[in-house]
Amino acid sequence: MADQKKTDQKSAEQAEDKAIREARRARTYLINRELLEKMTKKQAERLRKARRFPVNRELLEVNGKPGNGAQLLDLSMNGARLRLPFSPPFMSQITLKFTLQTDARIQSVIGRVIWSRRGLDKDWYEVGVQFYQNYWEIDQLLRLEQR
Predict the structure, then answer these.
(1) Do the Cβ atoms of 116 and 129 come closer than 8 Å?
(2) Average pLDDT, the chain
């Protein structure tokens, strides 16, 4: 009887030790995953070819049609992040027209869709666009806006 109690106690201790080890592994995994996500984000920022500027401007036209609330969220000379009421196909061409705060001229840019995901509003999408050419003039205007 005493041997049975010792065996049961030992099994309970082993099960408890196993649960503790698994909890530690899970916590370590979560911490490492968070660190990896932060590092990946920082690395992506370093790999960018141009500085991104938050602009939050309404798009006048998207592919020749009125913007209807579509927004330009951020912009660089190489690309843009948009908020659109539709999800354009991957690698499709997209033409945008907008104005900047410091320049009343209408800017027209052409690029291709490189990513798209559903936004926080379920009827809207965030879309990443890579321009076919570098728009140096836009970069200069954006830098002037930041001053």
Answers:
(1) no
(2) 86
